[in-house]
Write a structure and sequence with these properties.
Layout (H helix, E strand, L loop, with lengths): L7 H24 L1 H7 L15 H23 L3 H23 L7 H24 L13
């Protein structure tokens, strides 16, 4: 194994964290949209202060997050540049827009929740870059990419 920081294991770790995060958000939003709206992330309420509740919208967003979770899990299993780069770019576009919205709609949030939300959303912007950066370069031996 290489001692380089750029390593498929780091890319896989970032992709797994993104898969878990997307599933943690997407599955409850898709399956129990009202409970998601009222209590996500289930230790505090980061969605309810931004009414109104719309079951269709919450369920659809849950489906999109769950689909991203599937793609991130697939990419962690088979981390090819052809999959990881466009996946991470697409997620980053969505994550930046999500962060900007929440950063500009903090009314009704206490300081702990506001900071927690922004730090969490900031990590979701940064992790795709880590995954892409950590992938071995195109000329690297592909053996380390096998599960």
């Amino acid at each position: 194994m290489s001692a380089s920081v750029r390593d498929v294991r780091l890319a896989r770790t970032a992709l797994v964290v993104l898969a878990v995060s997307a599933a943690f958000t997407g599955l409850p939003a898709a399956i129990v949209p009202r409970a998601f709206f009222d209590g996500f992330p289930f230790l505090s309420a980061w969605v309810a202060p931004l009414p109104p509740f719309n079951e269709h919208l919450v369920t659809d967003v849950g489906g999109l997050f769950t689909a991203f979770a599937v793609l991130f899990a697939w990419a962690a299993w088979r981390p090819t540049r052809e999959l990881v780069v466009p996946l991470c770019v697409a997620w980053t576009v969505s994550a930046v827009l999500h962060l900007v919205f929440h950063a500009t709609h903090l009314d009704g949030f206490g300081p702990v929740d506001a900071v927690g939300e922004l730090v969490t959303l900031g990590l979701l912007v940064a992790l795709p870059g880590v995954a892409v950066w950590a992938l071995p370069s195109r000329g690297a031996a592909p053996a380390s990419a096998e599960p």
